[in-house]
């Protein structure tokens, strides 16, 4: 995938007041509380991401007011990175590259808002049940287990704070039950006032920084120009966007297929005269599987935190609509 599309994909994937409730026993009710808490509560803390031997710690601050959600996520290990959300704008700050990428919020959110509001159809693709209660980051937590009904998605275990429903730990499991990735708070404050200084970038953006506008334009689903030849069980087309690739490079079509938890992004971009052989290629980075192929002078790239067979079926099934 070209650099611009790869950066957009990364930020998109990173890229989506206190309310207390009495604990409930229904696992679907717990999912509803988890989905709401990540977007409606004030919270701040640090969490650790683990995947295939990689460890990364991030700091997050999140608050909600009349203007919407405001959030700053800073990666504390390796190359510095920030993702700053304010209402309908998301800024991905890359200090090493002196670059800021501006986008709009997408359907896929960062931890702890991993579960979207539209989770009602999850029972079609997962067997959902309550697990054991325990403690995470000093809080009492209830675990909810989602077991996939087929081999086109991974399993999940979610630990929600008993009173607020905020997601404290999230674990993704492969078909053998082995951990693919895990997010877990090390410490977190829930339902407290968040200082506005915590939401501001700590990097000075001088005139030499490059600002990339990755905002796309939404396209009606039936006007994408591309279709999935045979549907993937449990997955539906969630959105279609056209995103700029840069000067004189045209646009990339970004299609998202999801089941309410898992999501597969498909990027379709003009291939030009280089690399138009039609050969396919696979790549894995952390929990993300990537598959790309050439079709009709375009590079089709499918990626997602799903089994490789799922992204392959989507990419191989995408075809251009005859005009």
Give the name of the CATH architecture of the domain at 216-320: 2-Layer Sandwich
Percentage of residues assigned to helices: 10-25%
Please give the oligomerization state of what you see. single chain
How much is the average pLDDT?
Answer: 87
Describe the global form.
Answer: globular
Order of strands, main sheet, comes to: 7-8-9-10-11-1-2-3-4-5-6-12
Assigned CATH class of the domain at 216-320: Alpha Beta
CATH superfamily heading of the domain at 216-320? MucB/RseB, C-terminal domain
| Topology as a string of helices (H) and strands (E) | HHEEEEEEEEEEEEEEEEEEEEHE
- E-strand count: 21
- Tally of separate helices: 3
Q: What is CATH's topology name of the domain at 216-320?
A: Phosphorylase Kinase, domain 1
Spans of at least 5 consecutive residues whose pLDDT stays below 50 are 1-10, 12-23
Helix-and-strand structural type: mainly beta
Percent strand equals: over 45%
> Sheet with the most strands?
12 strands, mixed
Give the radius of gyration: 20 Å
User: What is the first-to-last residue Cα distance?
Assistant: 26 Å
């Amino acid at each position: 995938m070209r650099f611009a599309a790869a950066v957009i994909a990364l930020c998109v994937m990173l890229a989506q007041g206190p309310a207390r409730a009495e604990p409930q026993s229904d696992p679907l009710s717990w999912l509803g509380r988890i989905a709401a808490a990540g977007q409606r509560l004030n919270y701040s803390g640090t969490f650790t991401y683990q995947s295939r031997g990689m460890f990364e710690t991030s700091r997050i601050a999140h608050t909600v007011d009349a203007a919407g959600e405001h959030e700053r996520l800073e990666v504390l290990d390796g190359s510095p990175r920030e993702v700053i959300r304010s209402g309908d704008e998301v800024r991905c700050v890359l200090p090493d590259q002196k670059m800021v990428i501006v986008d709009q919020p997408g359907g896929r959110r960062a931890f702890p808002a991993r579960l979207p509001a539209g989770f009602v159809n999850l029972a079609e693709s997962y067997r959902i049940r309550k697990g054991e209660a325990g403690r995470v980051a000093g809080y009492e937590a209830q675990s909810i287990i989602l077991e996939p009904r087929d081999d086109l998605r991974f399993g999940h275990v979610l630990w929600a704070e008993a009173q607020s429903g905020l997601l404290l730990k999230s674990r993704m499991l492969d078909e053998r039950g082995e951990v693919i990735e895990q997010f877990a708070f090390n410490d977190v404050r829930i339902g407290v006032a968040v200082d506005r200084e915590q939401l501001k970038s700590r990097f000075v953006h001088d005139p030499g920084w490059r600002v990339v506008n990755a905002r796309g334009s939404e396209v009606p689903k039936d006007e994408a120009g591309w279709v999935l030849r045979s549907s993937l069980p449990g997955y539906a087309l969630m959105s279609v966007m056209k995103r700029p690739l840069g000067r004189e490079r045209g646009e990339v079509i970004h299609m998202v297929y999801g089941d309410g938890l898992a999501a597969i992004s498909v990027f379709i971009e003009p291939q030009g005269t280089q690399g138009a052989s039609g050969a396919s290629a696979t790549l894995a980075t952390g929990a993300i599987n990537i598959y790309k192929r050439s079709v009709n002078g375009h590079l089709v790239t499918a990626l997602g935190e799903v089994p490789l067979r799922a992204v392959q079926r989507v990419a191989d099934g995408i075809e251009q609509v005859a005009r």
